[in-house]
Amino acid sequence: MSDQNPPEASSRPDNWKVEIDANNIAWLHFDMPGASANLLSQSAIEQLDNIIQ
């Protein structure tokens, strides 16, 4: 097991990507670059809240 922790979402502003398609629908993509798993942590949820407000 590794002692390394994935970066917190709040410190990685590039975790969320917003894309608006031709029908004016916003798509939110969540990805934690460099992490082996995308963890939807409390800080990631707070970041999402900031994006959608």
For the termini, the CA-CA separation is 38 Å
**Largest sheet composition:** 2 strands, antiparallel
Alpha-beta content class: alpha+beta
What kind of oligomer do you see? single chain
Tally of alpha and pi helices: 1
Q: What characteristic shape results from the CA principal axes?
A: flat
Low-confidence blocks of residues = none
Helix and strand succession? EEH
Q: How many structurally independent domains? A: 1
Q: Helicity range of the residues?
A: 10-25%
Please state roughly what percent of the residues sit in beta strands, choosing from under 5%, 5-15%, 15-25%, 25-35%, 35-45% or over 45%.
15-25%
The mean pLDDT is: 81
Number of strands: 2
Q: Report the C-alpha radius of gyration, rounded.
A: 13 Å
Strand order of the largest sheet: 1-2
